[in-house]
Amino acid sequence: MYSLSELEQLCSECKKCRLCSTRKNAVFGEGSDRADIMFIGEGPGEQEDLQGRPFVGKAGKLLDKGIEALGLSRESVYIANIVKCRPPGNRVPEDDEAASCIEYLRWQVKLIDPKVIVLLGSTAGRNIIGKDFRITRQRGNVIEFGKFKIVPTYHPAAVLRDDTKKADFWSDLKLAVKIYGQIKNC
């Protein structure tokens, strides 16, 4: 079994798909290795690729505000992505790219063992829940997935592009914390 640091080292050297040829940094993930709430997004953008950290651009700032508004800190949760390298032009990761990276994410989930997973956007949903996942249909619900409670919501970048998604995004984040509170108090 790997440790998170060993897994991160493997990820930084990964050449399983073509995304490695254009990356500046592999963006493994960050936060508490004992986080009870984990956020999973699509993949790194330009700022994430430059800094080697997830969700540090405009969408990341919105996610940080949401996390803080819920009384949590970025350091108390864990943030990762489906793919660890930036797709060119910030396009959606292709299926083979996601398939090449998903094992890293599975190990992250196994090692961190969160109680609640918040899926940020349709790419995360399709790669975790299944190919028929639709964010507009399934957001706002709690999905039982093995021992995990999953709360899908819009990706913060989608919220930045479409203000009408903001209320649902906040509502979903509150739902994730509520579900966590119920689990913690059992």
Structure description:
It is built from eight helices and six strands, in the order H-E-E-H-H-E-H-E-H-H-E-E-H-H. It has helices at 4-12, 46-51, 58-69, 95-112, 122-128, 135-138, 156-161, 166-184; strands spanning 30-31, 37-41, 78-81, 116-120, 143-145, 148-153. It has a single domain (4-184), classed as Uracil-DNA Glycosylase, subunit E. The chain has 186 residues and is of the alpha/beta class. The protein starts with a helix and ends with a helix.
**Sequence of strands across the biggest β-sheet:** 1-3-2-4-6-5
For the record, what is the CATH homologous superfamily label? Uracil-DNA glycosylase-like domain
> Would you state the CATH class?
Alpha Beta
Question: What's the CATH architecture?
Answer: 3-Layer(aba) Sandwich
Order of helices and strands: HEEHHEHEHHEEHH
CATH-defined fold name: Uracil-DNA Glycosylase, subunit E
Q: What ranges have pLDDT less than 50 throughout 5 or more consecutive residues?
A: none
Structural class: alpha/beta
The number of distinct structural domains comes to 1
Shape: globular
Roughly what percent helix? 40-55%
Give a short account of the largest sheet. 6 strands, mixed
Features:
single chain, Uracil-DNA Glycosylase, subunit E, 13% strand, globular
What is the fold's blueprint, element by element?
Elements: H1 4-12, E1 30-31, E2 37-41, H2 46-51, H3 58-69, E3 78-81, H4 95-112, E4 116-120, H5 122-128, H6 135-138, E5 143-145, E6 148-153, H7 156-161, H8 166-184
Parallel strand pairs: 2-3, 2-4, 4-6
Antiparallel strand pairs: 1-3, 5-6
Quick structural summary:
With 186 residues, the chain is α/β, with parallel strands linked by helices. It is built from eight helices and six strands; from the N terminus they run H-E-E-H-H-E-H-E-H-H-E-E-H-H. It has a six-stranded mixed sheet with strand order 1-3-2-4-6-5, with helices on both faces.
